[in-house]
Specification:
By secondary structure, the chain is an all-alpha fold. The protein has a domain of 246 residues. The chain is 64% helix and 2% strand. The chain is built from 20 helices and 4 strands. The strands form 2 sheets. The chain has a two-stranded antiparallel sheet. It has a two-stranded antiparallel ribbon with strand order 3-4. Helix 2 packs across helix 7 and helix 13 packs parallel to helix 17. The longest helix has 31 residues. It is globular, with a radius of gyration of 23 Å. It starts with a helix and ends with a helix.
């Protein structure tokens, strides 16, 4: 127990220490406050090649159109690569690819990777050729992650600027995020992973005879290239079906820790970027504090639940924590930390099976995804999700004292609140609507293979929460490789990507056009523990109340049933 909490607290402290370092770098290279200016040689070459005017900025609508167009074009390009993958060179052998890549599965996968969800209704090593993984999936992981970071930078500009119609140039943000952030970090990280034992090869799979005399296929490939960027870009799609539990993808505790830091540090640092750009560092730290409180609370609940063990197993005399579907090399601590980080960070690169967690254990990642990427969150998306939640709290607090709500000198009026309301309603409408559709149709219920009742309900909610949160992890006993789930999860992924990003950009545009009002006696300070508490309370009570009936019928009922036996 002590060793586990030493690991948890050390992780929080390391992320806290690295957030300002990474934040200063992001602020400088993305030029979050004033985007135009000097251009480096590498950037200039790319701008000339793509015909980009680096000195011309966009209003929020132009930025949103560019972001949407880029994502949809990337989706179509990836779909084409996947449909033509049989013509790509190199391995593995066609006989080793046992899962057919149907048009519906290719469509779902293309949407998944272009929205940073990387929902995988297939096993990577049994479905994808090497160059489909490298050229298609890894390439889109870079670009989709960079696009998310670009939207985060544009959102921050909305608070930093005054009386401006522009929030930056999407193409400039995209190029800088790719060339100056993700690419160098990914190269360094991939080399480190190779050194730590992750394979990077184009040689074919190995066919061996086991000691029992049976034939076994050992999959390998260019794993290191995908593993690092999947976490940096908060995508999470694995080369292998078991993702971070596979020893070739995640060999030891050190690689697991590096993966968790890759997921958390850049999104966490966006709070520091926010503070720098607005000239209110304490306000950025208040947002980070709210994230950290929720993160630590999730760790406590998940650790206690999994360490307590399964009551039914313990009744048979087997005393100990719940180790079902956990890797011994990580144990409860490494598995719990990963489960909380990946479900908070919109990444989904799990090293344990969510389906085998105890009810209160999987309740934590489920709630993290339903809250909407607010704790560290996705790359670029975490900052605007947390700020949106905080602004809901400020609006409520402002009404309670009879004053117009403000945040950092920006008025939160009727127009702003409509956008915030749209943002807030996207997740519950999508998750609950699609869950109701799945459970009311034969096509949806037929995929709930081995578990009925409350656990079966949880599997379906978990799937749509994962897709809407652009996370990608799934409870394994749900058969997601069907036409019904290919279509409905794609709808959820697109809603989670565009339904949240576009209102955030629209809000940034409205705020950028405002001046900055001076603080007065009725202004709620945005850099105090009280503000952080308001943000946490709003996230927990407003966010989760929307899903309380579903959670009560799912994991809560299952926990009561399990404990009563």
């Amino acid at each position: 127990m002590t060793a586990a909490w030493f690991q948890y607290l050390t992780f929080v402290l390391v992320v806290t220490a690295l957030a300002p370092v990474a934040g200063r770098y992001l602020y400088r290279v993305l030029r979050v406050q004033e985007q135009t200016g000097g251009v480096g040689r590498k950037e200039a070459f790319v701008y000339r090649l793509l015909g980009i005017d680096a000195q011309k900025e966009m209003n929020w609508l132009q930025y949103a159109i560019a972001f949407t167009t880029f994502t949809l074009v990337g989706t179509l390009a990836l779909y084409g690569i996947l449909r033509l993958q049989q013509y790509l060179p190199s391995g593995p052998s066609p006989t080793d690819l046992t899962t057919p890549l149907t048009p519906e599965l290719a469509m779902n996968t293309a949407v998944s990777f272009s929205t940073t969800t990387t929902w995988q209704a297939y096993g990577g090593e049994t479905t994808m050729k090497y160059w489909a993984q490298i050229l298609g999936l890894t390439g889109q992981t870079f670009l989709a992650g960079a696009a998310g970071l670009a939207v985060g930078a544009a959102f921050i500009r909305g608070f930093a600027r005054q009386s401006s119609q522009a929030i930056g140039n999407f193409w400039v943000d995209l190029v800088r995020a790719t060339l100056l952030v993700l690419l160098p970090l990914s190269i360094f990280g991939a080399v480190a992973l190779v050194w730590l034992g992750v394979p990077m090869t184009f040689w074919p799979y190995i066919h061996v005879t086991t000691l029992e005399g049976t034939q076994q296929v050992i999959a390998r490939g260019p794993v290191a290239a995908l593993e690092c960027i999947k976490n940096l870009g908060t995508n999470g799609g694995g080369f292998f079906n078991t993702n971070g539990a596979h020893p070739f993808a995640n060999p030891n505790v050190l690689t697991n820790w590096l993966a968790m830091l890759a997921i958390a540090v850049l999104p966490a640092s966006m709070t520091y970027v926010f503070g720098l750009a607005t000239g209110r560092l304490k306000a950025g730290w208040a947002l980070y504090a709210a994230m950290a409180v929720i993160f630590i609370g999730a760790l406590v609940i998940a650790d206690v639940a999994e360490r307590a063990g399964n009551p039914q197993v313990m009744a048979m005399g087997v005393i100990g924590p719940n180790m079902e579907n956990k890797e011994i090399r990580f144990g409860v601590a490494g598995s719990t930390l990963t489960s909380v980080v990946t479900s908070n960070g919109a990444t989904g690169s799990t090293n344990t099976g969510p389906d085998s967690l105890l009810p209160l254990g999987y309740l934590v990642p489920l709630c993290n995804m339903l809250l909407g990427e607010i704790v560290f969150g996705g790359l670029g998306t975490g900052i605007y999700s947390m700020v949106m939640v905080a602004m809901v709290g400020l609006f409520i607090a402002g009404l309670m004292v009879g004053r117009t709500p403000e945040y950092l000198g920006k008025k939160i009026g009727a127009g702003e609140m409509k956008l915030i309301a749209i943002f807030t309603l996207v997740t519950p409408l999508t998750v609950l609507g699609l869950t109701a559709l799945a459970l009311s149709t034969d096509s949806g219920r037929s995929s709930v293979l081995t578990n009925g009742g409350s656990h079966g309900l949880s599997e379906v909610i978990f799937a749509y929460a994962s897709c809407t949160g652009n996370n990608g992890q799934v409870m394994g006993s749900l058969n997601a490789n069907t036409r019904f789930y290919h279509v409905t999860t794609a709808v959820a992924m697109l809603a989670g990507r565009f339904g949240l990003a576009i209102p955030a950009l629209a809000l940034a545009g409205r705020l950028a056009s405002q001046g900055r009002r001076a603080e007065h006696a009725g202004t709620l300070p945005s850099d105090t523990p009280l503000f952080a508490g308001v943000a946490v309370a709003t996230a927990v009570f407003i966010g989760l109340l929307s899903f309380l009936p579903a959670l009560a019928l799912g994991p809560v009922v299952e926990e009561m049933h399990l404990s009563s036996k």
